[in-house]
């Protein structure tokens, strides 16, 4: 029904973040595009198997006050801030969340244009707070991992959360395989890269 789609690696400056990921992994990300109205832009590298790393940063060409871009600009740290699950039925995801007493928000329509001029359109569903993944339906758009550089593989993704049992219940209902442990909220990804095995820090 659903699977891990991408990790969102937040940085205060995209150029600096791209260099950071290249030095860490040995793979150079490529520019993705801007998210109008969100105040962000991104760069990507592929994990293969329709999964990828999104380096997300403030977009200096947008007005940042009140946007996600402003939040990223005001935090000097780099790290995994969120993660996304691909699902082709967001209403079913909402029902699965409700079954474990987790509320969700309205489904959001999103779009961006790639540097090659390809228009992407997708839908998002967010649950009630940032400890949960957000859910994405790519609809008819090509998956962003297809044109992103290969060379890295996601070998482990660990979530630490104060409510691991509820987290495991929802992920189990959705068929999403991730490691969940008790602790303060955090997202920790281990990658196999040309530079060896590396761990991405948590932004949270």
- What structural class do the secondary elements suggest? alpha+beta
CATH arch. level architecture: Roll
Q: Please tally the β strands and state the result.
A: 12
Q: Low-confidence runs (pLDDT<50, min 5 residues)?
A: none
Placed side by side, the strands forming the largest sheet appear as 2-3-4-1-5-8-7-6
Helix content: 10-25%
Number of domain modules: 1
Name the CATH class: Alpha Beta
pLDDT averaged over residues = 95
- Write down the Rg: 16 Å
CATH homology superfamily name: 2,3-Dihydroxybiphenyl 1,2-Dioxygenase, domain 1
Helical segment count: 4
Give the overall shape. globular
Strand content: 35-45%
What fold name goes in the CATH topology slot?
2,3-Dihydroxybiphenyl 1,2-Dioxygenase, domain 1
**What's the main sheet like?**
8 strands, mixed
Order of helices and strands: EHEEEHEHEEEEHEEE
């Amino acid at each position: 029904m659903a699977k891990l789609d991408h990790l969102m690696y937040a940085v205060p400056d995209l150029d600096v973040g791209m260099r950071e990921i290249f030095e860490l992994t040995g793979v150079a990300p490529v520019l993705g595009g801007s998210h109008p109205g969100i105040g962000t832009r991104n760069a990507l590298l592929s994990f293969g198997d329709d999964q990828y790393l999104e380096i997300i940063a403030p977009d200096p060409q947008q007005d940042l006050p009140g946007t996600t871009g402003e939040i990223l600009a005001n935090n000097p740290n780099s790290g995994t801030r969120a993660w996304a699950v691909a699902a082709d039925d967001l209403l079913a995801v909402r029902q699965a969340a409700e079954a474990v007493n987790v509320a969700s928000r309205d489904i959001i329509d999103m779009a961006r244009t790639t540097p090659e001029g390809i228009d992407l359109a997708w839908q998002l569903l967010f649950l009630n707070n940032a400890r949960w993944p957000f859910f994405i339906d790519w609809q008819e758009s090509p998956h962003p991992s297809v044109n992103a550089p290969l060379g890295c593989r996601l070998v482990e993704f660990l979530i630490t959360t104060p409510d691991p049992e509820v987290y495991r219940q929802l992920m189990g209902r959705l068929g999403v395989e991730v490691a969940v442990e008790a602790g303060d909220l955090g997202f920790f990804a281990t990658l196999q890269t040309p530079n060896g095995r590396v761990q991405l820090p948590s932004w949270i």
